[in-house]
Design brief:
Helix content: 10-25%
Strand content: over 45%
Largest sheet: 34 strands, mixed
Distance between the termini: 118 Å
Number of helices: 21
Length: 1245
């Protein structure tokens, strides 16, 4: 912190000050910033109305106004003397003739005048008192005498002398009154000042009025309170609390302003002098400032004006006794002109400004800018006729200061400036420096690190310009020394102009290895307009030998920026120079592609045109302005070395063109040469590379061309990434001979790390007399003349070849990809069932038809098999899964044999949603000993583990666990029955099943959850079963149990949601709800039992609706013309369904079925063949069952009229026949009007 200037030594106890009679109110500090011809300096009279309303001298009887003094004496006379001093001074100014010539009379006159004033201040409280009346009369006479000439004054003095003795008693009485009415309040006021602040509302109002004048009519000023305090340490102190000002330019709020007032000057009437001002917690928020339209002064004149204003501020402050101004806890918020840009905020700001004699001024600022502390200081010191003004700052974050989002927060600047002036105030010199460094400029994807920039300038009055001394700038791995001149605006040119040279220019970008590019000469000319924040580069020239570059550009950093344009052209430039001069932040992805794909060469001609919008400066290449003009580049190249697709060899002697337009880069290579690791040179022709939008984050490219030469070289290229076409074929490129020509096409992301799954490619190759000296997939290939077509999914090879010593026609199809079918040994070998048996690959009835097989003998004695099952049929018995011919399927496993035991390890079967992974152990007769499947998925979504192990008592113990199982195939199989030979071959194998599955999926979106099953069966006979679970929709319980008994097994089942179970089993989808019970006995002769379903409904069954409509019509006709209409939904709700059934083999016989409901009912019987899924069911439908059935319950009459206990007076006979999924409904309409026993004539039997 700066210390205030030292007090001048000698003189009075109070500081010697210039013009002590004038106060700060007479000429406020703000006047110092006014033009020189209108300032109220020390020798000029203040304007009559300038600076706010005049302040009347304080009155001794007005304790609310400041200025009342205190005295250490306890005598009333002294208190009165102090209290009436301001009044005396007022009278002295009015009549100096009365004051000076008649001191003796004046001493007598003062008590009269004080008593008179005290009496008036007490609101004439003692008007009736005679002594006060006499004092008032005497006072009036004295005042009148003071207005007369000197003769009248003498007369007044003589008159007072003659009456002195007579009024001595009156004098003491008046003094006592004055002491009572003036001294006591003053003493109380003094005590209040010493004890604590004293509120002064009148002072608050007057200062508030001054502030209101400052903010103008459009603004508003307010002060919460004003306080005055006298302390033993600071003397007289005035506080303004909660100050607020608002206007069109800014809003400000200040917690407190403290004025340290010269108490001595105040008490003797020398005016209001302030030693120091302390401003606490100011918060200033500016409105959005519009660009200035006034003409800025010439820089030298501006410097001189700044010096003159600083001098006036320092002198005026010092003359008024103002030694120091401090500000703490300040916050300044300045909005930026850019839309939606965050404001500039200076927080935790502390400022100290001190003035001293001779116009000396010093100041220091400490502030926080975006959590970065920065400091600044300034000084004005005049010595020996020379004035020096210095300004410097440190650690100023340029990103936060200027609101640049493409500059890192750690990039700071440290500006310094020094101006010199002679005794007349004329500028004689100016120097400045700017140190920048330690941060990133993110104008591209990666940005450029600016290590350091030291710019130094000096004003040269004789030349009329500003010289830039050689100043180094280091960025990335490059170094540029900048020198030149800058000229200030003048009447002819309102812009700053500059003419710069680069005496040293060394460009070595960190992302480009090799020697740097060194320019022999470079010139940059242009203009800068600070008002519009624009930069124009009118001329850029650079040369290095016969290499030449020319360019121009313009940049706008104003409210609508940053924006820019850049146009350049090159002539006979080496590629190494071109790529190093290409700034990393300009079209970064395009530059990156050129760096990664072009290595060397010569560029005879090149032109570049760039148009940049604000989104190009945000360091994110994916953000693109829709109205932006894309970058454009045209160049030709010769003798170029370039990369082919990643990991392929370099092409040399390239001749072609490169174009970039609409953010798309296109490179065309007419001719080039490349050479693989083996096979000799290869000719490269007609190569075209087209990229995706260069501004996208991940660059895609499409590459096409033709390569011809030795087959070994072509095979080597085809074996590299991203194609890798030889490895799946088992071809060793080094063993290949012959000739080849390949046309290729690649498309996809071209990153350093190639993801083959994202690359699309095609190859069309012609091979002539190609042989392989080493086996290809255990086969020897010679004299092959074939055409190969390959892409990301498949490879085909057609032609003729000698395979394993046999002439063969090759027609190879090799799927490619992680989920593709197996590869082959160069050919497709089809094995019949006889071939498979000869090789120990007989699977009985599980596998039929030809299969493609590849067998490889491993070094450890095992054999690896890859089985292509696409042309074969594959069946897994018992679960309803079958794969037909034409459906892709693949099985792989390793087979080993020891002591007559065959082990199939790493078994993996994948086909049409099936995925089975595990190990299988077989005995010498291929009988299953153990199977352990870690994954057993027969349909997509199945999550099961299955383990089967042969029991000691023959048969298998099967354990099933999992989270999900799709049982629809199993349900279909159970409904159809299993009658094929594979089932018969299985014989009567005992099985013991223990299963726990969290969810079993059936038909109709129905499922059973938390299913637990324990079962024992032999063949098709279930001896014991215990199944529990809950329905997935409503959580109703399901339980099925088969327990052995003396005369057969007893089957019991129950469910709380029969409709859900029927949908699950795909038996009937329209029944909703219903509590179901089944009880049946299972014997060798078959199964017989009964089932009951209660409280259910049928949802929109077409056949049921048709019979309801027919019955309703017949009922209406029978009602003698009366209209009878059943409720529309009544026919769908039923009370119960009772069925008596018998099962023989796969035929379910419904002996009797009775349906009861309030609105309808009926009875039926028939058969259902579970194997053929054929239904044959006949019965009677009875409408309005609750009433109609009453006739059937009447003995004898009911049999005649109602057709029996379960019949009705009115009914329709029907028959359902055909496939269970869609049976045909037939009914006899005549039966609807035929009662009882006669209706049986029309039944379907």
């Amino acid at each position: 912190m700066e210390q205030p200037p030292e007090e001048p030594k000698g003189g009075d106890a109070s500081r010697q000050r210039v013009d002590p009679a004038r106060s700060v109110e007479d000429a406020p500090l703000e006047a110092a910033m006014a033009p020189a011809d209108s300032a109220a300096g020390p020798g000029n009279a203040a304007p009559e109305n300038g600076g706010g309303p005049a302040t009347a001298p304080p009155s001794a009887g007005d304790p609310a106004r400041p200025g009342s003094g205190t005295s250490s004496s306890d005598e009333p006379a002294n208190i009165v003397e102090d209290a009436v001093k301001p009044i005396k001074r007022e009278a002295d100014h009015k009549s100096d003739a009365t004051h000076k010539p008649h001191e003796a009379g004046h001493k007598a006159h003062e008590p009269h005048k004080a008593a008179h004033k005290a009496h008036e201040a007490s609101n004439k409280a003692h008007e009736a008192t005679h002594g006060a009346h006499k004092a008032r009369k005497a006072g009036h006479k004295a005042k009148g005498a003071g207005a007369d000439a000197d003769g009248h004054a003498d007369s007044a003095h003589a008159h007072a002398h003659r009456r002195r003795r007579r009024r001595r008693m009156w004098f003491h009485l008046s003094g006592a009154c004055a002491g009572l009415f003036v001294g006591v309040p003053v003493a109380l006021l003094a005590v209040a000042f010493v004890v604590g602040p004293f509120r002064v509302d009148m002072l608050r109002s007057e200062v508030e009025s001054v502030l209101q004048t400052l903010v103008g009519r459009e603004g508003k000023a307010a002060i919460g309170s004003a306080e005055v305090s006298i302390g033993w340490q600071h003397g007289l102190v005035m506080y303004l609390n909660d100050v607020s000002m608002s206007g069109p330019v800014a809003n400000a709020s200040i917690r407190r302003i403290t004025f340290d007032i010269d108490a001595t000057a105040f008490l003797v009437g020398a005016g209001l002098k302030v030693h120091s001002i302390a401003i606490e917690s100011p918060n200033v928020k500016f409105a959005v400032l519009q660009p200035a339209t006034f003409r800025r002064p010439e820089p030298v004149a501006l410097l001189e004006l700044l010096n003159e204003r600083l001098e006036r501020v320092a002198t005026l402050a010092y003359d008024r006794g103002l030694e120091q101004v401090t500000l703490v806890g300040g916050r300044l918020e300045v909005p930026r002109q850019q839309p939606e840009a965050p404001p500039l905020v200076l927080d935790s700001t502390a400022i100290t400004v001190a003035a001293a004699a001779g116009g000396e001024l010093r100041g220091r600022l400490v502030s926080m800018l975006d959590r970065q502390q920065w400091t600044a200081s300034f000084s004005r010191i005049a010595q020996n006729g020379t004035t020096v003004v210095k300004v410097d700052a440190e650690d100023v974050g340029i990103a936060s200061l200027l609101g640049l989002n493409f500059v890192s927060q750690d990039l700071t600047i440290a500006p310094k400036a020094e101006g010199r002036f002679d005794a007349t105030g004329k500028a004689t010199g100016f120097t400045a420096s700017l140190n920048v460094g330690g941060g990133y400029i993110r104008l591209g994807e990666d940005g450029t690190f600016l290590q350091r920039a030291d710019i130094a300038v000096a004003w040269r009055p004789a030349e009329g310009d500003i010289a830039i001394t050689p100043s180094p700038i280091l960025f990335g791995g490059s170094e540029v020394t900048l020198a030149g001149t800058v000229r200030a605006p003048d009447a002819d040119n309102p812009r700053w102009t500059f003419d710069l040279t680069l005496p040293r220019a060394r460009f070595a970008p960190v992302d480009i290895p090799g020697d740097p590019a060194i320019l022999q000469s470079a010139v940059v000319q242009g203009t800068v307009d600070p008002a519009t924040r624009s930069l124009v580069l009118s001329k850029i020239e650079a040369t290095a030998g016969d290499q030449r570059a020319e360019a121009s550009g313009a940049f706008d950093f104003g409210p609508n920026g940053p924006r820019g344009r850049f146009d350049g052209q090159l002539t006979n430039v080496a590629y190494s120079m071109f790529i190093r001069l290409w700034p990393s932040f300009i079209v970064t992805p395009g530059r990156k592609w050129v760096i990664e794909n072009i290595i060397d060469g010569v560029i005879p001609t090149a032109t570049m045109r760039l148009r940049m919008t604000p989104l190009d400066f945000d360091s994110d290449p994916t953000t693109v302005s829709p109205d932006a003009t894309p970058a454009h580049l045209d160049m030709t190249f010769e003798n170029a070395s370039m990369k082919l697709p990643p990991k392929l060899p370099i092409a040399t002697n390239g001749v072609g063109t490169l174009n970039m337009d609409n953010n798309i880069l296109t490179a065309k290579v007419a001719t080039a040469t490349t050479e693989a690791a083996r096979g000799g040179p290869l000719a490269v022709t007609d190569v075209t590379v087209v990229t995706s939008d260069l501004r996208t984050r991940h660059l895609d490219a499409t590459i096409s061309g033709t390569i011809s030469g030795a087959a070994a070289g072509i095979a080597t290229l085809a074996d590299d990434e991203p194609i890798s076409a030889m490895k799946p074929l088992g071809i060793d490129p080094a063993a290949v001979s012959g000739q080849a020509k390949v046309t290729f096409w690649l498309s996809g992301p071209m990153e350093n790390v190639i993801d083959r799954t994202l690359i699309k490619w095609k190859i069309d190759a012609a091979l002539q007399d190609v042989s392989s000296s080493s086996p290809i997939k255990d086969h020897v290939i010679k004299d092959a003349t074939v055409d190969i077509k390959a892409d990301t999914t498949n490879l085909t090879l057609k032609g003729t070849a000698n395979i394993d010593g046999l002439a063969a026609k090759v027609d190879l199809s090799q799927p490619i990809g992680p989920d593709a079918a197996p590869g082959h040994s160069g050919v497709t070998v089809e094995l019949s069932e006889a071939d498979r048996k000869a090789r120990g690959l007989d699977y009985g009835g599980l596998l039929t038809g030809p299969v493609g097989a590849t067998m490889v003998d491993n070094s450890d004695g095992t054999k690896s098999f890859t089985i292509d099952l696409k042309k074969a049929s594959l069946t897994i018995p018992g679960i309803g899964w079958t794969k037909g011919p034409g459906v892709a399927a693949l099985a792989t496993f390793d087979m080993s044999e020891k002591d007559g035991i065959v082990t199939l390890s790493r078994l993996n079967l994948a086909a049409d949603g099936v995925s089975i992974v595990g190990n299988v152990t077989l005995d010498g007769k291929n009988g299953l000993q153990r199977a352990d499947f870690s994954q057993f998925s027969l349909r997509p979504g199945d999550i099961l583990k299955v383990r089967a192990e042969r029991m000691s008592s023959n048969g298998y113990a099967i354990t099933i666990t999992g989270d999900n199982y799709d049982a629809r195939g199993l349900i279909q199989q159970l409904k159809k029955g299993w009658q094929d030979k594979s089932s018969q071959a299985a014989g009567k194998v005992p099985l013991k099943i223990d299963a726990k599955v969290a969810r079993i999926v059936g038909f109709g979106s129905a499922s059973l959850n938390n299913v637990e099953l324990k079962a024992s069966l032999t063949g098709d006979t279930v001896s014991k079963l215990d199944l529990t679970g809950v329905t997935g929709a409503g959580g109703a319980g399901v339980a099925v149990k088969i327990a052995p008994g003396d005369s057969g097994s007893m089957l019991t089942a129950s469910t709380g949601d029969t409709g859900q179970v029927l949908r699950f089993l795909d038996l009937y989808k329209r029944l909703i709800g219903g509590n179901g019970q089944i009880r049946a006995r299972m014997t060798d002769a078959g199964t017989a039992g009964a089932t009951t379903v209660t409280s259910f409904s049928v949802d929109q069954d077409p056949g049921l609706q048709e019979m309801v409509a027919t019955a309703a019509k017949k009922t209406a006709e029978k009602a003698a013309g009366q209209r009878v209409q059943a409720p529309p939904d009544a026919a769908s709700r039923f009370e119960s369904l009772d069925i008596t059934f018998r099962v023989n083999g796969s035929v379910l016989q419904i002996i009797d079925a009775v349906l009861r409901g309030e609105s309808s009912g009926g009875s039926a019987n028939g058969t259902l063949n579970l194997t053929t899924q054929q239904l044959s069911l006949a019965g009677t439908f009875i409408p309005i069952f609750a009433i109609n059935n009453l006739f059937g319950r009447i003995p004898i009459i009911g049999e005649i009229l109602g057709g029996g206990r379960d019949g009705g007076l009115i009914g329709v006979t029907f028959k359902l026949e055909g496939p269970l999924a869609n049976p045909t409904l037939s009914y006899n309409p005549i039966s609807g009007v035929t009662p009882g026993i006669l209706r049986r004539i029309f039944e379907y039997n």
